[in-house]
Specification:
Layout lengths: L1 H5 L2 H12 L6 H7 L5 E4 L5 H6 L6 E4 L9 E5 L14 H10 L5
């Protein structure tokens, strides 16, 4: 219904991405990002975990968008990311397209 009103699946993905963009992360993201683990998986679209992780001093590979470096901590985004609206998974069809378009190698 919303997709029809916006005109296309791509437009819906763009709107979701725009609504979920934020420059500020909260305490829960900071606590999770600083746990002593090397592998993290999320279904969240936002980039709050990446922001909370700490940037350049603490490397973080975001899969499936960057090549994996087995020495670094990585974050697997299973349902897409606001930085890549075309990959945001909202429907079963989006999920099937995502798994066809993106190859995840950790």
């Amino acid at each position: 219904a919303v997709e029809l009103r916006l005109g296309s699946p791509e437009r819906l993905q763009q709107e979701v991405a725009a609504l979920l963009k934020s420059e500020l992360h909260g305490l829960p993201h900071a606590l999770l990002a600083n746990l002593p683990v090397k592998e993290v998986v999320t279904t969240n679209y936002d980039t709050l975990f990446e922001q909370a992780h700490g940037g350049e001093n603490k490397p973080l590979t975001v899969l499936p968008y960057e090549p994996s470096n087995k020495e670094e901590k990585w974050l697997l985004k299973l349902h897409g990311c606001t930085d890549h609206p075309a990959d945001i998974v909202l429907t079963r069809q989006d999920y099937l397209r995502f798994s066809e378009r993106v190859r995840i190698v950790a």
